[in-house]
Design brief:
The protein is α+β, with helices and mostly antiparallel strands. It has 13 helices and 38 strands. Strand 30 and strand 31 form a beta hairpin.
């Protein structure tokens, strides 16, 4: 945020800075006073109240805190210690938050203390954003403080997070949520009025006989309404006159300010007045009437509610788990998936220490129900726990147990789990039964989808790893069907890879022999993505007007990688999904070194007939780049390579079957020719043909997403062609219009 002149650490609860602000000296102590929850050895401790004084502090990433939680920074004879708040060391590390936010969190637990161990576990699970300053990238974005760019980034791309200094939320966040002046102003605007009857009488004869609520006493109707959101109550009164008297019920409107009510934040931490006109209080606390301080209090209170839901999750433990037999595991195939932060990296990753608990269990031989608990973090959903129910209602628990938010599906067996996994955790699961497929449990849209954990028979053993509130890693053991050699490449793509935005449909020919480059077969997080530029069944081909290939720069590796492909369409084209318009790992304009464009007259009947992917070899480098050549039905050719590269057509594609996985695990496989070290840059094109009777309608790519990459934008590790049977196309060149007969059609 503006106004902070040195490296800032932000409150992990509200997202506001913990530092003095030069533009708001009156907010000095609310910004500066903080506490730290930290681990010291095996103990979890809460600090006293410290004071952040800016550049005079000894270290921007170590906080000086009173050891005694009852002490403040200005107490005499106060003992202090220093705790790191960005990266943990072996013995001590912590998370800082405003003293005000801690008081609000305490208010959420009037009958018991906040569990410091659970609090620390949840806070450990909040990934820091990729930024110089330390602000945590919760899915809720602190209600607008952090902008999450989902339009032109893949969901797992951490570069999409940034602080918005000019946003309305950023202005509100500078206001003290505990401002006494804000409450006094509200009290002055509210008028003490005669208390309306808590039980206003509505004569029974005025209630229509067809009203199902007409025979209920008003006290019971009032109780029902207290559990409804205000908008729902206002809607239901239109169909049931029994709810109309509640519009003038002081008791009903007072429930809006009680714990769990939509306005509970207003009088939190203060005594609620008696004898008030609560309807007037409700109107006076609408967003257009309240001060910025109360607006910020509302924001912080909402964030703490989200945090409390995570703190209150109950760990299932090991009491329901079934023993496993190591000798049996050695006879089984296994597969795994995990979120991006657990990815391999040659250097420490800021998100690499969030896993807390792992469980492994044998699954019952008979399972009648599967339950999945969903945890919300802003707009994102994560799997928080799983339940496997045997006949007789015996339950096996993995992860966290939730009183609410668990969905169950009936199953005959569990042959596998389709998984949607993203940067921070598993978003959703889909249960694969015997000739059955459940709906997605959770929201799968933000994750890579994979069938990797599907087996021939029921899963025998399952291992799950969780952080403070969500599932990070799944590993399953079972029997895999042996795939014939000629189908293994197709099986790898369709049943082992991790796809975005979805797993390719069966009518999409993946043309495995045309794939060039690297493909990680069993990597737990390997993004594969595709752009169906021709649309389903070639529906968009008559509107295609051009293709552009983007090349980036990677000076460290001395290569010019392909970093994206874009497609343009006729202005009168139907609404074409963004996912069909580009194949672009990370669209940083400053990462683009060259754009090569080729025009296509789709409205005139021209379409791409052949595609030749290429591998580029660079002198003095073991790295590979990629290129592309296309030819159309009109005999026109476009070549997409960086300037100065030589090229030639490979006599035939060479793919080593020995490198293709045949069992449960395998190393990386390179599809395409094995090439010698060159003395100059050149491209080698594959001569493989696409499936007979089909037309190219899409491209797919294996993305290089490595956290250790030092490049301005990701690039393609491998590249392939999607084709489909599209029926008859129309050629309008030179005034001719006739159905084109496709090769093999």
């Amino acid at each position: 945020m503006d106004g902070f002149s040195y490296l800032a650490v932000y409150c992990i609860i509200c997202g506001g800075p913990i530092a003095p602000h030069e533009d708001f000296p009156e907010s000095r102590f609310w910004f500066q006073e903080y506490r730290v929850v930290y681990r010291s050895g095996e103990r979890v401790r809460l600090s006293g109240v410290g004071l952040r004084e800016g550049p005079r502090d000894s270290s921007p990433l170590h906080y000086s805190i009173p050891v005694d939680p009852s002490n403040r920074w200005d107490d005499k004879d106060c003992a202090f210690t220093h705790i790191p708040v960005r990266y943990r060391n072996r013995q001590e590390y912590g998370y800082a938050f405003h003293e005000v936010c801690w008081r609000f969190l305490n208010d959420q637990y009037p009958r018991r203390d906040v569990s410091l161990r659970r609090l620390l576990g949840v806070l450990r699970s909040a990934p820091p954003s990729v930024s110089t300053d330390l602000i945590y990238a919760w899915g809720h974005g602190y209600q607008g403080l952090i902008h999450v760019n989902t339009t032109d980034r893949y969901p797992w791309d951490s570069s999409g997070f940034r602080i918005i200094d000019s946003s309305p939320t950023a202005q509100i966040a500078t206001s003290n949520p505990c401002s006494a002046e804000a409450i006094e102003d509200l009290l002055n605007r509210l008028h003490l009025r005669p208390i309306w009857s808590n039980n206003p009488v509505s004569p029974m004869h005025r209630r229509p006989h067809h009203d199902p609520f007409a025979r209920l006493p008003l006290e019971l109707i009032e109780e029902i309404a207290s559990y409804l959101p205000t908008n729902s109550m206002l809607s239901i009164r239109r169909v049931s006159r029994s709810f109309i008297p509640l519009l003038h019920s002081s008791t009903f409107w007072s429930t809006r300010f009680q714990p769990g009510g939509e306005r509970e934040y207003v009088f939190a931490a203060i005594d609620k007045p008696k004898g008030w006109d609560w309807l007037s209080a409700y109107h006076q606390t609408n967003s257009e009437h309240i001060s910025m301080a109360l607006e910020n209090k509302k924001r912080v209170w909402h964030l703490i509610n989200i945090l409390r839901q995570k703190i209150d999750l109950e760990w299932s433990g090991d009491s329901t788990l079934l023993p496993i037999y190591r000798s049996r595991l050695e006879c089984l195939n296994w597969s795994q998936v995990h979120c991006l932060f657990m990815d391999r990296s040659p250097r420490p990753h800021p998100e690499s220490d969030r896993s807390i608990d792992a469980q492994i269990t044998r699954l019952p031989s008979h399972i009648s129900q599967v339950g999945v608990s969903i945890v919300h973090d802003g707009n994102e959903t994560y799997v928080g726990g799983m339940q496997f129910v045997s006949p007789g209602s015996k339950r096996l628990y993995l992860g966290y147990i939730m009183k609410e938010g668990t969905s169950f599906v009936d199953v005959d067996c569990v042959k596998g789990l389709n998984v949607s996994v993203g940067r921070r955790g598993v978003h959703a699961l889909q249960v694969v039964g015997d000739n059955s497929l459940s709906p997605w449990l959770g929201c799968p849209d933000a994750g890579l989808k994979s069938r990797r954990l599907v087996f021939q028979d029921q899963i025998e053993v399952l291992k799950a790893t969780f952080d403070g509130f969500k599932l990070l890693h799944l590993q399953a053991w079972g029997k895999k069907t042996r795939v014939p050699l000629e189908l293994r490449r197709h099986d790898i793509l369709m049943n082992h890879q991790m796809w975005f935005p979805d797993i390719p449909s069966p009518n999409m020919h993946m043309n495995e022999l045309c794939f060039v480059g690297d493909m990680e077969i069993t990597h737990p997080f390997q993004p594969m993505t595709y752009a169906q530029f021709g649309g389903p069944g070639g529906a968009y081909l008559p509107f295609l007007t051009g293709i552009s290939v983007l090349f980036g720069h990677d000076d460290a590796r001395k290569i010019t990688p392909m970093i994206g492909i874009e497609f343009t369409y006729h202005p009168h084209a139907p609404a074409i999904p963004l996912s069909s318009q580009k194949l672009w790992p990370r669209p940083f304009r400053n990462a683009i070194r060259k754009i090569v464009r080729f025009d296509i007259d789709g409205p005139g009947g021209e379409y791409i007939e052949k595609v030749y992917p290429a591998v580029c070899i660079y002198p003095g480098s073991r790295e590979f780049g990629h290129g592309l050549k296309v030819s159309t039905n009109w005999g026109r050719t476009g070549e997409f390579v960086p300037t100065g590269s030589r090229s030639f057509i490979s006599p035939e594609p060479t793919i080593s079957d020995a490198e293709v996985t045949t069992g449960s695990v395998s190393r990386s496989s390179r599809f395409g020719p094995t090439l010698p070290a060159p003395t100059e840059s050149w491209y080698r094109y594959s001569k493989a043909e696409i499936a007979p009777g089909t037309v190219p309608t899409g491209f797919y790519a294996c993305l290089d997403h490595s956290p250790s990459r030092r490049t301005n934008g990701d690039c393609f590790k491998g590249f392939g062609i999607i084709s489909e049977s599209v029926g008859d196309l129309v050629d309008k060149k030179e005034g001719r219009e006739f159905p084109l007969r496709l090769k093999g059609g």
